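Hallway conversation turned thread

IA: we were arguing at lunch whether anyone had actually written out TauD/TfdA-like domain-containing protein end to end. Turns out nobody had. So, for the record, here is the sequence (355 residues) and right after it the structure tokens. Reply here if something looks off.
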Amino acid sequence: MPSADSPTLAQPDTGIVGGNPAARTRCLKPLQYSGTLDHYEHMDLTPVSGREYKGLQVTDLLKADDQVMRDLAATISQRGVVFLRDQVVTPQEMKQFCLRLTDVAGCPESSGLHVHPLTEEGSELGDQVSVISSEKQKKGGGLTHQLSDVSRFASAGWHTDISFEPVPSDYAMLKIHTLPPTGGDTLWASGYEIYDKLSPSMRAYLETLTATHDARFFLEEAERLGNPIRKGIRGSPLNHGDQLQAVHPVIRTNPVTGWKSVYVNKGFTRRINGVTKDESDMLLHYLFNLVTQNHDAQVRFKWNKNDLAIWDNRSMFHCATYDYMEARTGDRVCSLGEAPYLDPASKSRREALAL
């Protein structure tokens, strides 16, 4: 992996910034939606992102042909996040579904399901299922303990999953099966829309930069909890060991849509490379604020029991709302995509859709 001081990761003769030959996408052109999901009742939740389907079950999609799954992948990547109500699906079926979704969307052959570094050995649901539990957090544990405990500002929780890995997540799915009577909503924000808010000059500058994503605070968390970090392969041969650090382009291209997205997040991005610390802090503060303070780039979802969300981690940020006292628990599965890259020839969402 390049050092954190590397200003660029340009590939000669291609113009591509970032990526890794061992984890390149097989999606060589954007997926085109063919209409196989049109007969399901659905509605878009905002002009920018979010789509909710009614009557669509993950178990039915597991039996569908590859074109249906490709259409779903295209929809998730274009809308950022898709919501499916009242799902009758097991964690094992979620794992099967996520593997098939990432496969039809062109993930590298070396990519599979992620194993979180803090996942306990012998977890009852398996290494590739993360239990999102408010009860664990109350006891000082859980995957979001550090993110929720370091600030009194709820916006400190905005992140995209596992960007500290050399090969981070493409798709993630979360099913909430235990929830309070009210509260506990989740918000998502579109990295496509954040990119579209930048001036042309700022876009051009940010496209020359990389950032260091760092989760070494997990090492302290593991020691505090008495559970060793998972140092073995975590879903990709490039994700292993206890470095928990990666360098990615500040602007990345989503191969499924061909659109550019801002790719820095409060949870894990520590430094923009090739500039002074003061300049890095200023740029990150501005980009973080674009995510947290632009409600027109966000969609908020109120969960009901057994609802499920599937989102594209390459282009969406998310944040849970900790405004409840009762138990809130769910199961999350993350698939791994390609090593992040920027294709300068790719377009913004608004350019591509002529908005």
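OS: looked through it. The radius of gyration is 19 Å.
IA: good, adding that to the notes. Residues 330 and 340 are 28 Å apart (CA to CA).
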